[in-house]
Amino acid sequence: MALLSSGDHIVSTDAIYGPARSLLEDHFSRFGVQATYVNTTDISNIERAIKHNTKILYIETPANPTMDITDLKACAKVAKEKNILLVADNTFCSPCLQKPLDYGADTVFHSMTKFINGHADIVAGIIIAKEKTIYNKLRAMMVNMGCNMDPHQAFMVLRGVKTLSIRIKEAQQNAMKIAEFLEKEPKISWVKYPGLKSHPQYELAKRQMSGFGTIISFGLEGGYNAAKILLNNVNLALLGVSLGGVETLIQHPASMTHAKVSYQAKLKSGITDDLIRLSVGIEDVEDIIEDLANALKKINITGHPI
Ligand SMILES: Cc1ncc(COP(=O)(O)O)c(C=O)c1O
Question: In angstroms, rounded to a whole number, what is the distance separating the alpha carbons of residues 101 and 90?
């Protein structure tokens, strides 16, 4: 809202946080702001989507929930050439694992509800601008919109951020082991984790991120029915739409975080019915694996309860 006006256009990663897409599609559109959603893992898609009135290239990397990785440096180059702003949602990494401003982004933001606070007990966000002129616009909007954080929440964030690096280190070690476990499971058809060599942008993730993070997406052979059985049978992993906390959370994006995104848009951006998103916490990794393994035993390959 601070950076766009009626008649402007935005190019966005297609698989972004569901409500961010709904906000653009259902509300910004009412004020004359248009958006084009593309798979930003391919820079040529971005170049093709930019129009004369494009003002912002909006990316989320890794993308929620597909775990696709977008090349920040390449995006910054395109944005500079086209004289548009590069805005990055860095929630999935936190500043601990990825620094978009260093790669040329103009503005970066985080849901601090997630890793930065880390304990799933507040809702908060932060936007960081490289240039003072952009900062001033953002601040004016923030004040007018009443986004000021209350002191207790600010205290909670400051307390949480002190353990950010050790929480992430521990959780991402767990995530790597869990991703490897999932990859070997016959009832699982695919696993997307930036730390796996099978991830299509593994080399880019290695270059751009200082760690592979704690979020894993995977698909079940039995599709939606199997996903439902799995979610109903985990005990340690909690069913929840948040991520980045000390506890392991599991969810089904197509029917939860991205429920409001149209079916066609979901399919086009890879948010399929079989996709499960796991935010790995700092519990004992063997306990998390055992929990998933026990729940998987309840599914047969076609997705019906055994
Ligand atoms: C990538 C991403 N960005 C933004 C948000 C919004 O965060 P909040 O819940 O703090 O509004 C989320 C929430 O899940 C998210 O996953």
Answer: 10
Q: Which CATH number covers residue 221?
A: 3.90.1150.10
Is 303 within the bounds of a domain? no
- Are residues 142 and 171 both part of a single domain? no
- Burial of 141-171, coded b for 16+ CB within 10 Å and e otherwise, reads eeeeeeeebeeebeebbeebbeebeebbebb
Ligand 1, atom 6, lies closest to the CA of 111
Pocket of ligand 1 contains residue 251 by CB under 6 Å: no
Question: Is residue 111 within 6 Å of ligand 1 at its C-beta?
Answer: yes
Q: What pLDDT, in 10s, does the model give residues 171-194?
A: 999 999 999 999 999 999 999 999
Tens digit of pLDDT for each residue in 8-48? 999 999 999 989 999 999 999 999 999 999 999 999 999 99
Residues 35 and 142 in one domain: yes
Amino acid 147: pLDDT: 86
- Do 175 and 154 lie in a common domain? no
Ligand 1 pocket check for 125: Cβ under 6 Å = yes
60 lines ligand 1 (CB under 6 A): yes
